[in-house]
Design a protein that fits this description.
mainly beta; 1 helix; elongated
């Protein structure tokens, strides 16, 4: 009998907690009432802050002295939100119901990226006592701007409770194929990895006129040549309630 009462009490407590949370969120004028026990939020993306870096360190060793080469450099990307013509656009929706939370959103951000890298190639060698050593090399600096667009998408999910998971996906488009920063060229293509990462938030964060959702992501990928490439970013989406 005691066990049945305890289970019943837990169910009642969970129901009261969910009802209280929905009542808190539904108090917002931006929430549209749906089915019983359901609340929906709608937002527009006002500002996106973005700062991304891609690094490359690698080399090629053909088995002889002549032809040894290496790369060293980085690509740095920043948003252009200071210009009103380049303001990011997007939207996000969030649904809270009796079985959990779901939602999704996206933003498009204009980026300006700068490449700074160096390519070094061994062009001549000599052999002394059976050991090859470099006698001449060629060094090529690589630099230049890249303007591109970033597509940022986020999927929101969570069980019954106040904590939700945000899965972020970043993709370059409009002339660039990389993800967190655009792929580029320094004698040969420099490929940077795609970006997917996870953060967490509370539902209470969405109960405001302005909502800031921060993100941070790091990814590296095995290179085709000896070395490594990686990319990382940080920033946030500023959401404004609509409706």
């Amino acid at each position: 009998m005691g066990r049945i009462s305890l289970e019943r009490s837990l169910r009642i407590s969970s129901g009261v907690a969910l009802a209280a949370l929905l009542a808190l969120l539904a108090a917002s004028p931006a929430v549209s009432a749906g089915a019983s026990g359901t609340a929906r939020y709608h937002f527009s993306v006002g500002v996106a802050a973005y700062d991304g870096v891609g690094d490359v360190v690698g080399g090629r060793f053909p088995g002889k002295c002549v032809g040894i080469s290496n790369w060293d450099g980085n690509m740095h990307s920043e948003d252009q939100t200071l210009s009103t013509s380049n303001a990011p656009t997007g939207k996000l929706s969030l649904t809270i119901h009796g079985h959990g939370t779901s939602g999704s959103g996206y933003a498009r951000v204009d980026l300006h990226s700068t490449l700074k890298a160096t390519y070094r190639l061994t062009t001549a060698c000599e052999t002394i006592e059976g050991v090859e050593s470099e006698t001449a090399f060629q060094e090529t600096p690589c630099a230049g701007p890249v303007d591109s667009k970033m597509h940022v998408s986020v999927r929101i999910s969570g069980g019954v409770g106040n904590r939700v998971k945000l899965v972020w996906d970043f993709l370059q488009f409009g002339g660039a194929s990389g993800a967190l920063v655009p792929d580029s060229l320094c004698v040969e293509p420099l490929k940077f990895p795609t970006g997917v990462c996870t953060t967490y938030a509370t539902l209470n964060q969405f109960n405001h006129k302005l909502v800031t959702l921060p993100f941070k992501c790091f990814n590296s990928t095995p290179p085709l040549r000896t070395g490594s490439t990686d990319s990382r970013n940080q920033g946030s989406l500023l959401l404004k309630r609509t409706g």
